[in-house]
Amino acid sequence: MAAEEAKGKEKAAEKTKSYKPEEVTVDTASIKMMKKALAEGIDTIFDRAVTMKPCNIGVEGICCKNCSQGPCRLPLTKKIKDGLEEDNRKGICGATPETIAARNFARMVAAGAAAHSDHGRGVAETFLAMARKETHDYTIKDEQKLLEIAPDFDVAITVKEGDEEFPRDIWDIAVEVGEKALAEWGKQSGELYTIKRAPEATYENWKKLGVVPRGIDREIVEIMHRTHMGVDQDYRNILAQCSRAALGDGWGGSMIATDLQDVMFGTPYPIHGQINLGVLEMDKVNIIVHGHEPLLSEMIVAAAQSQEMIDYAKSKGANGIVLAGMCCTANEILMRHGMPIAGNYLQQELAIITGAVDAMVVDVQCIMENVANVADCYHTKLITTNPRARIASGHTIHIEFDEHHAYEIGQEIVKTAIDNFTNRRPEQPILIPNERETMVAGFSYEAVRYHLGGTFRGSYVPLNDNIINGRIRGIGGVVGCNNCRTVHDSAHLIVVKELLKNDVIVLTTGCNAMACGKAGLLTPEAARVFCGPGLAEVCETVGIPPVLHMGSCVDNSRILMAAAEVVKAGGLGKSIADLPAAGSAPEWMSEKAISIGHYFVASGVYTVFGVTLPVTGAPRFQHYLFDELEKLYGGMWDLIEDPYEHAAKMIAHIDKKRKALGIDK
Fold first, then answer.
1. In which element (H, E) is residue 384 found?
2. Tell me, what's the pLDDT at 13?
3. φ/ψ (deg, to 5) at 211
4. CB of 155 closer than 8 Å to CB of 176
5. What is the distance between the alpha carbons of residues 472 and 460, in angstroms, rounded to a whole number?
6. Are 360 and 375 within 8 A, CB to CB?
7. How far apart are CA 19 and CA 44, in angstroms?
8. Contact 580, 474 (CB under 8 A)
9. Pairing, β 637-639 against β 164-167
């Protein structure tokens, strides 16, 4: 009884534990909102991180629950880790740690690829509806981009009449591109059209290894089949299927989504914006769009900027409308419209806690269920919009998005937020932090080409020349989520700053881009403060920030295309694996990050994750990921929690590649 009482007291004490805001984030706006949350008794992810610890076996990837005979948990002993004894651990069916960890890893790749690629499918469906004139709320905003991508889908952009060629009707081109793009999801054989955008040597290596994706959905479904109980039990074979599915995401679904969004909404070019919770305004209707799909947010932008809605807001006593983004939807509306960003993943609850948010509009991915509970504590309306993503809360409104009535639905959502402005609670003081930073975003790979070479001679050659002459040491792709198991934004910023001071130019997307924006790293002036002398000189000459914001998570395909452009420009090898480049996700948390990480590895990039990686309980499988993959793909995984060591390993890899190219002197 005494032992039970002691356990009960221990659990009760655990529940009363709290966190110190200054110890869980480096963002001062977030610190202010955490203090307000603690004072008002609002439960957030930071409270739950204190009282809920991760399973020490699950975190190592060696818990299997793929049948009802389990879950089978195979703890990793120190002796096995040190290689002092034979590893005889087995699940009830005999599955080894390697099989279990590989299955779990593969299912994360499948889920991540499905999330990004399902986004792409929705874009392709809307694009085709637009091309067929079935919806009138979308149009072709970038004809040049459409003409550039059409040949990749074997779509002719000219027609022959006799001996002469004439430009083909742009809408006919759009219909055929839309049909062929959408068919990529259901393709059962052959290979994806866009896979050949990779450098020839990279593509030929995939063919040799047999990992060229046949169809986007097919590869995801095959992972789920292979990882069913009693199917594929060779971790090497499972990982080959991971490569097919991940490449189908990066060079397929995600890339197609980015391309078609650019055609419909415009290819991003550098644009000024502002970031952090200080973008909210006391006397205006504040709407936050949160999630990942720009099909709806583009219409909400149009509605919020219409004179009709602005006048309606004024009739309710507001002085206008602020439309701000959260997570990757934020990056989408920033890149094309310069709309402000309220914050990244771990700030979604904190935004509502300001008391100033009249509506939070969500679609899919990275939306915490707890935002509904926090919204219930304030006047905020939480509006779900996607049939795939509803929240079981009585106070949540569902206004379903339909691309055939897109602008009308955007207006309804904005009007709902305006009507809620008058419901702000006088007994709950509004606190909007004053932190907001200016930044420059919008660096599509086309924009980078333009900035480096100008309108008529756009080229990646100047970038290659400066890598070869040593002013730029190499390229770092730093991306990914926030994670409550780390100090919010801290690892992102340490890794990026370490790279910059060592003359490594950084390409960024997603929540990392927002962390950099809040810290003042997304301005040309940052080069003088944070960079080594070589990189600073290049950035000041060209007039670009040292960290190039390339968009949302789905836009990691822009980084792949930038890498392909660098190879094409010459002088730095024949494949992506030859480049002095490395990838990083210092604070990753979602399954999408695993799919992204693996398509970079399979493309030839050394890729380092922070926090944890669910493979450490299977030493042979971990060795395969961290060492042997480099012999196959030229890229490999790594896990380094300390952000300084994390950056140092990336720089060491870049130096290794410079030496192999003979440009290390």
1. strand 381-384
2. 47
3. -115, 15
4. yes
5. 13
6. yes
7. 11
8. yes
9. unpaired
* Radius of gyration (C-alpha) of the chain in whole angstroms: 25
**Closest to 186 measured CA to CA, from 213, 152, 216, 222:** 216
Pick from 237, 248, 236: which is nearest to 625 by CA?
236
**Tokens in use for 454?**
């100008």
Categorize the per-residue pLDDT at 12 as very low, low, confident or very high, splitting at 50, 70 and 90: very low
> Helices (DSSP H) in 519-555: which residue ranges?
526-530, 533-542
Yes or no: say if 396 and 382 are a contact pair by the CB < 8 Å rule.
Answer: yes
Residue type, 264: M
* Helix 556-569, helix 254-265: angle, nearest 10: 90
What length does the chain have? 665
Give all strands of the β-sheet with 271-275 in edge-to-edge order. Answer: 396-398, 381-384, 359-362, 285-290, 321-326, 341-343, 271-275, 437-441
Is the N-terminal amide bond of 524 cis, ω within 30° of 0? no
pLDDT in tens, 390-433: 998 767 999 999 999 999 999 999 999 999 999 998 888 899 99
Task: Name residue 653's amino acid.
Answer: H
CB 253 within 8 A of CB 246: no
Q: How remote is the C-alpha of 212 from its chain's centroid?
A: 23
Q: How far is CA 605 from each of CA 113, 475, 634, rounded to the nearest angstrom? A: 18, 11, 7
